[in-house]
Design brief:
By secondary structure, the chain is of the alpha/beta class. The protein is built from seven helices and seven strands.
């Protein structure tokens, strides 16, 4: 099993990069784990408090569960990936079954910030995008998908997204084996990365193997 970690700031184009990579690899040989699914369950908190959670801080993520799930997949066992709702800021009682595949992609803004998780990656990638481009994508996504208004999105960006990016996310570029500028628009970098993944699969030398 080849495990690929793909990090980058909010709105950098990580999802597009992942989608393009998956499309270039053999069908049914790739599983994707999203860091967003592993935000800690906050159903015990009042809704008002849940809506104030800093989703860009490492403490918001249950890395322990994500690491355990990766270990299970590497051992050939399926997992129940949590379902997290940004609307309720809580996990669903249901899960999504993920089966072991030849390639497992773990994507999220902070996946390179945790050393234990980072050490499990065979390939580490950082998707870079200009801050102006990222905020435009964030505004569009948060309004369309998460039910927030422009004022709320901008307040969140200045109060948590931007400072957390500078403190916890941007510095993890130093751990990356490959930096992909311009996100999903960089077709050359995506092609190179896809080729590297295919070559590593052929050689069959992975972390923990």
């Amino acid at each position: 099993m080849l495990i690929v970690g793909i990090a980058g700031g909010t709105g950098s184009g990580k999802t597009t990069v992942v989608r393009e990579i998956v499309s270039k690899l053999p069908k049914d040989e790739v599983a994707v784990l999203s860091q967003d699914s592993y935000y800690r369950d906050n159903s015990h908190l009042p809704l008002e408090e849940r809506q104030q959670i800093n989703f860009d801080h490492p403490m918001a993520i249950e890395f322990e569960l994500l690491i355990e799930h990766l270990k299970q997949l590497r051992a050939g066992k399926p997992i129940g990936q949590p379902i997290y709702s940004y609307l309720t800021c809580a996990r669903s009682e249901e899960t999504v079954t993920i089966y072991p595949k030849e390639v497992v992609i773990v994507e999220g803004i902070l996946v390179l910030s945790n050393q234990k998780l980072r050490d499990m990656f065979d390939i580490k990638v950082f998707v870079f995008a200009d801050a102006d481009d990222r905020i435009i994508r964030v505004i569009r996504r948060d309004i369309e998908e998460r039910g927030r208004d422009v004022a709320t999105v901008l307040d969140r960006y200045h109060n948590s997204v931007k400072p957390m990016h500078q403190q916890f996310i941007e510095p993890t570029q130093k751990y990356a084996d490959l930096i992909v500028p311009q996100g999903g628009e960089n077709t050359v970098a995506i092609s190179v990365l896809s080729t590297v993944i295919k070559e590593r699969l052929t050689r069959g030398v992975f972390v923990g193997s």
